[in-house]
């Protein structure tokens, strides 16, 4: 669902996977043990600060870097639709994709390893892209 889902777009080497589920807490409770057995770490909602999802992180074998993120999203939630629309807008508009890549590179330089600042820095661009004619 993230930049790795847009061919040719520069991206961190982290694959973002999104799954629509019928009940966030029930699915997270039922899936956590199985995911943990395969190396996934659950990020509780109170730490994630995104109540609309349940979030898992998959570290590399050394435990030093993230390989993947799993976002469980409540079925029918607007966030699901927005994520898909933004991904598709980037796939279908090379100019938009290039502008997004340029912003991401700039933010990476400015924010370093501050993931929250990096994500916050992209928010206005994403919102405008979702409002624009290309979305």
How is this structure best described in words?
The longest helix has 18 residues, at 94-111. It contains five helices and four strands; from the N terminus they run E-H-E-H-E-E-H-H-H. It is α+β, with helices and mostly antiparallel strands and 135 residues long. The chain is globular and about 45 Å long. The model has no long low-confidence stretch (mean pLDDT 93). It starts with 14 loop residues before the first strand and ends with a helix.
List the helices and strands and how they pair.
Blueprint: E1 15-21, H1 24-37, E2 41-43, H2 45-48, E3 53-59, E4 66-74, H3 78-92, H4 94-111, H5 115-131
Parallel strand pairs: 1-4
Antiparallel strand pairs: 2-3, 3-4
Radius of gyration from CA coordinates: 15 Å
Instruction: Let me know the average pLDDT.
Output: 93
The N- and C-terminal alpha carbons lie at a distance of 15 Å
Q: What characterizes the major β-sheet?
A: 4 strands, mixed
**Number of DSSP-assigned strands:** 4
Order of helices and strands: EHEHEEHHH
Structural class: alpha+beta
Q: Which stretches of 5+ consecutive residues score pLDDT under 50? A: none
Number of helices: 5
Strand order of the largest sheet: 1-4-3-2
Question: What is the general shape?
Answer: globular
């Amino acid at each position: 669902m993230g930049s790795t889902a847009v061919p040719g777009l520069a991206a961190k080497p982290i694959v973002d996977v999104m799954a629509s589920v019928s009940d966030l807490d029930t699915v997270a409770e039922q899936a956590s043990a199985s995911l943990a057995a395969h190396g996934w770490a659950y990020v509780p909602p109170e730490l994630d600060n995104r109540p609309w999802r349940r979030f898992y992180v998959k570290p590399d074998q050394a435990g030093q870097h993230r390989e993947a993120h799993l976002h469980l999203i409540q079925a029918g939630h607007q966030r699901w639709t927005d994520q898909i629309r933004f991904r598709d807008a980037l796939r279908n508009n090379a100019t938009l994709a290039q502008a997004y890549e340029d912003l991401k590179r700039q933010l990476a330089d400015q924010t370093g390893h501050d993931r929250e600042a990096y994500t916050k820095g992209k928010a206005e661009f994403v919102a405008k892209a979702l409002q624009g004619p290309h979305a």
